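Shapes recur. One chain:

:::
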Amino acid sequence: MKLFTIVIFAAFCGAGIFSGDDGALYLNDRMEPVHKKKAVYYCDPAEKLEDGYHIKAYFLSGEIKMEGVYADPEMKTAHGPFTFYYRSGQTESTGQYKDGHKYGIWQRYHPNGSAKSEKIYAVQPMLRAIEVSVD
């Protein structure tokens, strides 16, 4: 497993996806890869799981921002459990992604840790779920 992780890491480096001398992947506020100068977050190489890739992203100052499972090591398709955090380390939200979209019930929290109302997401975005036929 360590060898596979190293291979994935080397593939990222060879493709120029990891942009730092330290091997970190730098991300913007939408968790998309960017150059270090435009980064808001960073993450270390993906950990290969049986059904995806476990990713942890951090604020540039080192506090955890997010951890979750992607279907691919390039972080293009979120697919599995996710937790987002406030800079304080307090949980911001937890839930599931399926094929790159939030789905099911997401638990959300205020910065002080008290619960916000839950948010429910459909399995597919509404625009894809609605079909109109005109005869």
